[in-house]
Design goal:
6-stranded mixed β-sheet, DNA-directed RNA polymerase III subunit RPC5-like, single chain, about 15% strand, about 700 residues
Length: about 700
């Protein structure tokens, strides 16, 4: 009752439905002019095609207006009608003194529109039959163009008498048309040419225009009022509350044409997530075929139970090198056959299972060896290989994804169960293909659950690291040797060639006369080099000097985020700019440099790099300025905490966290400044500086 008292009824108005003009009432709109600029000129003529709801109206142009260009009007009339005087001329006064407005339908469904008239406390509604938009028609330009072509044809007609004589003896070919099929008839009926022809066939109905203040107009306006105000004559407006509400807000009806037309094998993410979990996993695996478990969870959406997904994935896929590969019997169901050779599905499943089993044993598989065992057509064998591997020059086919040891560590029970399943499949393959024990033995040791398979790229990365270490030790030995021989000896510089595109060689130049203890002012903390690459220099256990603290503080206030390798590079450049004999040449170890960073209001950011990341140890040590002493410290600390959970994030996630923590006070300029200070963008994602692995 209290809510009703707050919203009192001010007035009740009776509503009537007038139907006298229901099939004749049109609303005209003039979209090319504002409402204040009406066409207050004489209306010369009007006509309509009722079926098409197409109207044309001719309006006079005030040729006496100071804004009218008379010479242009005469030129347009001359181009349209020529110099002849005829009743069919568009402009009888030899001057463009009128314009035509042609209509198009603003909407085809006018059932929700009506014209309303309010009189004596009553509201009378008349449904609209059509809503038309009238725009100026430029058909006179088409007529002028056709006149121009006729004149050109007449000028060239004198030279065509001989051609006409020759045309009299031209051969005539007679053709008989075939009966029109139903399909051809439907195409013809739906064609643009046929529709235009049908529209042209409807005759024009000429109308007489009456002005706004004409007595006939006043008489017609009376039909906008309902002639019978009794309740019995307005049954359309007598509805129950539920029926009236249903009329105002009809239930949504899903129309067939509203759905996007997609190929049969394409499923949108919205449609995918409407399926049961098992069907979602099955559909994804059939399309992708090979997928890590982490990627599968990302596709299924936030909040999906990983235990339920594990149960579903084991029904449609097998574990190969820590990744999930679609089962052969799911990919090739019963009673199907190969699209390439027509081989039955049962034979295809046996051959594909052998390829999958080979990849559980080895990182690389030779296609010829597989074809010799399964004895299937080359197209089918190639299809198997392309589904789960990529070709490598002089190595064979390598498994498509790196080994996912992280999944095996988290789910050892699943890995063990899959291992037992593969043992059963192995026994079946031995029997089907009649393989000996030697054939079943892998070239490399069979990986057990939890073991790590090293890929070719990882081997190359390890070799590059060894080369860099050898160069570093060689530099130090050379400088020690030359430094011991003479204090005036010129500095020795050993340049390391770039190992890959985008990898910058380190400048190892140093003044040996003043510092023969370290090449770049930095000692390595890697004591294992004593046995691998020869003797190593002793570490310097010195306290950080004020000069070192000042350098670290200034460099982080400039860069905000640095990896250890980048910090050492900048420190070496700083040393090169110092005069000989400076105190920083006494030798600064990696440990001392890191301790100085942590004492300078900085913090190490434990970025969770992916397991397969090829970043070096120094590149995975990331330090950031934690406290600068301004009001922006809290924003920066929140950003760095985000990167402690993921090594790459999207901009909208950062913006959402900042808004959640600090409210709407965070502007776009603040976010841009924060990202510019600490991050770099790559591939639509944001990374901390120095952590992007190209």
């Amino acid at each position: 009752m209290s809510s009703e008292d707050d919203d009192p009824i001010i007035q009740e108005i009776d509503v009537y439905l007038a139907k006298s003009l229901a099939d004749k009432l049109y609303l005209f709109q003039y979209p090319v002019r504002p409402a204040a600029m009406t066409y207050d000129v004489a209306h010369l003529s009007a006509k309509i095609k009722p079926k098409q709801q197409k109207v044309e109206v001719e309006l006079a142009i005030d040729s006496m207006s100071p804004n009218y260009c008379r010479s242009k009007g005469e030129q347009i009339a001359l181009n349209v009608d020529g110099t002849t005087t005829d009743e069919s001329n568009t402009y009888s006064t030899k001057l463009m003194d009128k314009q035509t407005f042609s209509s198009i339908q603003a909407t085809t469904n006018t059932s929700r529109y009506a014209a309303a008239v309010f009189r004596k406390g009553e509201l009378h509604l008349t449904p609209l039959h059509g809503i038309l938009q009238l725009r100026p028609s430029f058909s006179y330009l088409d007529k002028a163009d056709s006149k121009h072509r006729e004149r050109e044809a007449a000028n060239e007609g004198g030279d065509s008498s001989q051609d006409e004589a020759e045309e009299d003896v031209k051969q005539i070919t007679v053709r008989f048309s075939r009966p029109e099929s139903e399909q051809a008839r439907q195409r013809r009926v739906q064609s643009y040419e046929f529709l235009q022809k049908k529209h042209a066939e409807e005759p024009w109905v000429h109308l007489h225009y009456y002005g706004l203040k004409d007595s006939r107009s006043e008489h017609e306006r009376q039909y906008l009022f309902c002639q019978f105000t009794g309740m019995a004559e307005n049954t359309e407006l007598i509805k129950s509350p539920s029926e009236y509400l249903a009329m105002l807000m009809p239930p949504p009806v899903e129309e067939e044409f509203a759905k996007p037309v997609c190929p049969s094998n394409v499923l949108s993410m919205a449609q995918l997530r409407s399926l049961p979990l098992g069907d979602q996993v099955r559909t994804l695996m059939k399309n992708v075929k090979v997928m890590p478990f982490a990627n599968l969870m990302g596709f299924l959406g936030h909040g999906t139970d990983s235990t339920a997904v594990l149960r579903c994935i084991q029904q449609v896929a097998m574990l190969v090198q820590g990744n999930w590969v679609i089962k052969s019997d799911v990919l090739y169901p019963k009673d199907s056959c190969s699209p390439h050779s027509g081989v039955p599905a049962e034979v295809l499943c046996r051959g594909r299972d052998y390829v999958m089993w080979k990849f559980t044993q080895e990182r690389w598989v030779e296609r010829k060896a597989v074809a010799a065992v399964v004895k299937l057509p080359p197209e089918d064998v190639k299809d198997f290989m392309e589904q789960m591997s990529v070709t490598r020059i002089n190595r064979g086919w390598e498994f498509l994804l790196p080994h996912d040891g992280e999944f095996i560590k988290k789910h050892p029970d699943v890995a063990q169960r899959q291992h037992m399943l593969w043992m059963g499949i192995q026994a079946k393959l031995e029997k089907v293909f009649k393989l000996s024990k030697e054939d079943m033995m892998p070239k490399k040791q069979n990986p057990q659950p939890g073991s790590v398979v090293v890929s070719g790229e990882q081997l190359v990365t390890k070799a590059r690291e060894n080369v860099r270490e050898n160069y570093s030790v060689l530099e130090r030995e050379l400088q020690q040797r030359h430094g011991a021989q003479s204090q005036d000896l010129e500095a020795v510089r050993v340049k390391q060639e770039p190992l890959s595109d985008g990898e910058e060689p380190m400048d190892t130049s140093s003044s040996v006369g003043h510092n023969n203890a370290a090449v770049n002012g930095l000692y390595s903390d890697d004591s294992s080099r004593d046995s691998v690459n020869g003797p190593c220099l002793l570490r310097a256990h010195a306290a950080p000097t004020q000069e070192l603290r000042d350098f670290v503080s200034s460099i982080f206030r400039k860069h905000f985020v640095l990896t250890l390798s980048e910090l050492k590079r900048l420190f070496n450049l700083h040393l090169a700019s110092l005069p000989p004999g400076h105190s920083l040449f006494s030798g600064i170890s990696d440990r001392l440099l890191q301790e100085t960073v942590l004492d300078s209001k900085c913090k190490q950011i434990l970025v969770p790099f992916p397991p397969q990341s090829s970043a070096e140890a120094d590149e995975q040590k990331v330090f950031a300025l934690w406290e600068m002493g301004d009001s922006f410290d809290q924003h920066r600390q929140l950003l760095l905490e985000i990167f402690m959970k993921n090594y790459r994030v999207r901009r909208n996630l950062i913006q959402g966290k900042l808004t959640q923590e600090f409210g709407d006070n965070v502007t776009k300029a603040d976010l841009d400044r924060l990202l510019k200070e600490c991050c770099v963008s790559y591939g639509g994602m944001w990374y901390l500086k120095g952590t992007v692995q190209s």
